[in-house]
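S2.1 Query sequence (CobW/HypB/UreG nucleotide-binding domain-containing protein)
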Amino acid sequence: DERTVAHLLCDQLEFADLLVVNKADLVSELQLGAVEDFLRKVNQRAEVIVTSRSRLAPQSLLGEARFDLRRAEEHPAWLKEARENEHTPETTEYGISSFVYRAARPFHPERLAAALGS
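Output structure tokens follow.
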């Protein structure tokens, strides 16, 4: 497969339920409008949230179930993988890694909410 990270980015944009445009304060209104127009052409169904300095209410990300399995199953990439019955995880295909943070005790709910809100 000759796909690049750019292909993965396009797949993610097309499939997303929510698109967050950050650093809006660093571009002109014209440039921001062009970005929003592009995103809406690529994915008409996704909600687009524009922000600066990553200021975003946690509820915007966590408060609403957006995923629609029926719509996902109709996506061409989903159908292709289902027909081929083969999937290479993106972590393998693109060399993406992650980590899990484990603490001896859970986060304090109010402190976590305050940290996310600031």
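The first helix runs from residue 5 to 15. Residues 90 and 96 are 7 Å apart (CA to CA).
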